[in-house]
Amino acid sequence: MTKRYNLISFIILLIGLTISFFSYYEFDQLNKDKIDNLFNGSIDEKVSSFYRELDSNLEGIYAVQDISTNFNLNFASYKKVVSGIINRHHNIQYIAWIPRVKKYQVDTFMVIARKQFWGFRLKEVSKNNTIIPAGRYNEYFPFYYVFPKKMQKRLLGISLYPADPIFRKLVKATDKSDYWAFKQLPSLKPDLKDSQYILFFPVYFPGKSTELKGFIATAIDIAGIFTNSISLEQLTKLNITLRDITEPDNIITIFNNAKKLTAASDKKYYSTKILEDFNGRSIEISAYPTNEYLSSMRNLSPYIAFISSILITLILIVLIRRIMLRSIVIEQQEDELTYANNQLSQLSNTDSLTGLANRRHFDITLEQEWKRSVRESNPITLLMIDIDYFKLYNDTHGQLTGDKCLKNIAKALSKATSRPTDLVARYGGEKFAIILSNTEDREGKVAVKCVREISNLKISHKASMVSDHVTISVGSATFAIAPESPYKTLIQKADKALKAAKKDGRNRVKIIY
């Protein structure tokens, strides 16, 4: 009877749960479809808002472009026009007038220019990225009127043409685009953030659309324009990334506020769009919602349907309670087992004497970081460390003192690293190793700090041949981008550097990269 009762109860419970979950699923799908449509519509609206904000920032530049076409402004008039534009639009870094000066016009141009700007001279950026006097060319395109003043000091007189191949193509362009956007020019090296772009607006002589008069140049902050087009509340509820994908091998992140991840079941809410009409560049916007956004959009219909169906199975509360109690016992047992496994795993990865990561943990971590460096094109550095004349130390001071020395050195090496991602390990015996992921330590700063930390311990070493206290030798190996070869390549390089440090007299650092 008990078995039959349990079987019937189970069947009723199964039917009730099936109906409950089916109802929840159907209503939840309707809810998700609604959220999907609203989310994509919201992203389309934000793209439109970005275009409006961009047009608002460029509207003043178009006005300067029109004025420059029809009039020859002096700097005072130019400053009066552009200062109001920059004051209204804080995402515009500067606005500059770049006239086209032909060879036969240079002398006259220089006389006029020096009346407005004392000491004005034509300059260019050399291949070594230094400012030098401009060479002799058939024509010049110098930064002439530059506002604000801090940018004038940096750019005034720098000529972009003809040394710059990209700018040369721009001058000879046959299409009549409103402007061209660039991240960088070989002949101009401004300190631009990833979110900033240089825009060139061509200016032609009145009635002569083929005769170039010069350019209006401006630097704008796309991230700032984008954030101004979106409310703060929307930014906190959406994870949005702007990337420049013009060059597939050099993708630049312009803006990224992604902080909160959605649940795996919500990954379908992901939208990617290419922003057009930004001449010369391809900007991609990708977005997905936060849990807060999804919570605000969901309604209670799936839960109401689910709870209504569950009411049918209330008669099975006792049975469900028994199942729950058994589940709790099982979960407790699983938690205890998981805890024991974690403790065992920690012991298997830790050196019992020093408390550092052991050789097994080191090998696993280095292989993982090596693969990540290859995959993400990030630098990686490995330090191999050996205690100088440690065998003599043990012979002189005894094994117990030697163990204490190893513990103190392990603590000191741990202090020499500052990031939680850095791994300090006991490689074996008196040998230690430090993995510095995403680090190109070509100057050996961490290695030098390790030598200094050990020296500061002032552990007496009467048998040492390099000092009266314990010292270490460090070999540092760096890859700017890890090659496809096995990770042991890095170990070999670090060992080679360590041997060089010992050969040169110990108590020092040797670097290989």
Question: What tags apply to this protein structure?
Answer:
513 residues, Beta-Lactamase, 18 strands
What can you tell me about this protein's structure?
The chain is α+β, with helices and mostly antiparallel strands and about 525 residues long. Among the domains are: about 70-225, 2-Layer Sandwich (Beta-Lactamase), CATH 3.30.450; about 360-510, Alpha-Beta Plaits. The protein is built from 15 helices and 18 strands. The protein has helices at about 1-70, 75-90, 105-115, 150-155, 165-170, 220-230, 230-235, 290-295, 300-310, 315-350, 360-375, 390-395, 400-415, 445-455, 490-505; strands at about 90-100, 100, 125, 130-135, 140, 145, 180, 195-205, 210-220, 240-245, 250-255, 270-275, 285-290, 380-385, 425-430, 430-435, 470-480, 510. A hairpin with a 7-residue loop joins strand 12 (about 270-275) and strand 13 (about 285-290). Helix 1 crosses helix 6. The longest helix has about 70 residues, at about 1-70. Residues about 260-265 have low confidence and may be disordered.
Q: Number of helical runs?
A: 15
Largest sheet: 5 strands, antiparallel
Distance between the termini: 79 Å
- Parts with pLDDT < 50 across at least 5 consecutive residues: 262-266
Structural class: alpha+beta
Give the strand line-up of the largest sheet.
Answer: 6-1-9-8-7
Mean pLDDT: 82
Strand content: 15-25%
The CATH architecture category of the domain at 71-224 equals 2-Layer Sandwich
Report the C-alpha radius of gyration, rounded. Answer: 34 Å
The total of beta strands comes to: 18
Q: Residue share in helices?
A: 40-55%
Please write the CATH class name of the domain at 71-224: Alpha Beta
- The global form is flat
